[in-house]
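Students often ask why we bother encoding 3D structure as a string. The short answer is that it lets us treat folding as translation between two languages. Here is a chain of 437 residues written in the first language.
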Amino acid sequence: MPYLIQPDPHKIATPVFLGFGAEWDSSYYVAGNVTDEDFALARRRVDWMRLPVARVMMQVKWCSPQGGGSYDWNTPAMRALYRILDACQELGTTVFLTDWGCEPGWLRTPGITDAADPHYAEAMATYLAYLRREKGYTCIRYFIMGNEPNFEVKEWARWKKGIENLWTALQARQLDKEVTLVGADESNNEDWHRQAVAELSHLLGGYDIHRYARDEVVRSGQLYDFYRAEWAYARANDPQGALKPCIVGEAGMQDNAQHPYGNDNIGQFWYGVFMADYAIQAVNAGSAAVSAWMLDDNAHQGFFWGLWSDKAHGMRLRPWYYAWGLLCRLFRPGSLICRLPQPAEGPRALAAQLPGGGWSLALVNRSAQPVEALFKLPGEAGRAFQCYTYAKDTLPEDDTALLPALSLPGRVGVVSAQEELSATCPPEAVVFLTTMR
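And here it is in the second language, the structure alphabet:
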């Protein structure tokens, strides 16, 4: 008997949907000799994904290597950053620019003592003004101060003071009208998230959390419960919380992780199934965006977390690129996400009513048997759907074919007069259905 999946446009998971994306950093691009030709290959892959969201690293020392209020906008590190921001601006990608901090030794800048130092806030506001107004990177819509500050800063009061200083510096330049502050960017410390809601809601225009989840947590559906609880706390305790986006700033797998360098499972086909399951639960729970860690192994020396390997290993695509790429490509910003039940057992689904009409649907099956689902879609009689399946036997050998190679002949469906669409998902696989051409 098929599973019945009936999206209700009146039951919305999140007030705003920004899309799926990834961490896209340039930290090792200079030392790793990522050439224009190498970047062009990465750009083709990002273009295919139609990347809606990118969380992008920034460091004060890249533009102020001498400190003391002096700036150099043409350093090699800044030129590497511009390549990423140029791509995001052209694609219309929403950028969460993230200053990685100033306290760990590798992030130190002369003349800045710690996160509460007003010079730190001045430096961030100065480069934000330059990037937005001089360089024209209006794709930078959100800003995060300090990566995982519960680990890097460790002291709540000092980080909070830094946020307050930054807000003052942004207001002085009227940047508070152009860029939205997001926090707390915590990892494995929900007290920081809840303190941010309680003490900084008047400054923060959104909330974000990092979570590397164990497969048993995702497979059992408990990840949905986690995000539902944390976002519900923000929306209940912030007077404007119902209007603010809640973001998964870093998403990945905890099993066999070698933090910070990589994950031993990253090259396995089933990592894509895991990440699709993660994404579906997070968005149904109310997340406005999910940023996977990470896009590209070239970002950091010796890392192996990406959708493709680094230059030394041929920049080879990993299987999960296709699953994550389809989520990015088919579930567009501004879609209406209909909250669906996320059962502990059985398939999980994501349903998005697309801007301008039509639907994108995803169905993930973590079981050892194929499952059949019946989608009842309001007001869609006669509309054709294209079907794509992420399964072992559908993956292309390289990235020259990309989307066509994932299409299964004969699986193009048309919603009947009863507005029903059926789909069969193989074991440990993901099926995507969309009205997009």
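Translate back mentally: Residues 118-134 form the longest helix (17 residues). Keep this in mind for the problem set.
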